[in-house]
Amino acid sequence: MRGRNFWAVYERGASLLLVGIVTLLGVSLSPAVPGARAAPTVTVRLVVEEVRALDSIDSTSPADFYPKVSMNNGAAETRPRIDDDDHIAPDWTFTTPVDLATTKSIPITMELWDFDSFANGDDNLIDINSSVGPRALSLTVDLDPCSVTGNSGADANGLCGRRLTTAGIGDDRAQVWFRVEVDYPVVPDLRMRCTHGPVWPQPGQQVTFRVEALDGALNAQPVDRIELFIN
Fold it and tell me: Cα–Cα distance between 176 and 102 in angstroms, integer?
């Protein structure tokens, strides 16, 4: 391999400086400062905002809806049933912690059920999936960046925090509106200042990079990790 690549970390006052000397060889580098703090644990939240029956769920009375939700392959959880109402706004909420150091996406399975008394037989699994076959909704939540992909048409896909929807196509069907949220740690107002020299490097010439973390007032701030990508 021609040339030499060198990376180092320097502590100067309160700032963490990343200095690199690179010989331009047309290669791509992804250096990272060692000793970084572990990735945080975040909370992923599913909120079922609204449910509307699309056909006659119960022949003699309005529906008695309740949910069953599994997050990140955990045990299914339910929430209080709402009786005798075909159109509800329950705000059923489900949460799970996720370690970003080991997990980049999680599955969520949402089922909607209608309660039946003993005389009316077993509870009914409501169809909330626009695909032929499955009645439940299966979601994949990607955490970086945060987005949602479902197995029930384009309206069940989108960015976290947005109102999404899914609707069934079979018997005993309903439409559900929901959103997925992720509580990320609060990040301080950090900015990066990156300089290099020479300003107009030529092929084969060494280039020195200097990267600093600054606050909103451009004062140096301590950070645990700086990544510099060169292409």
Answer: 31
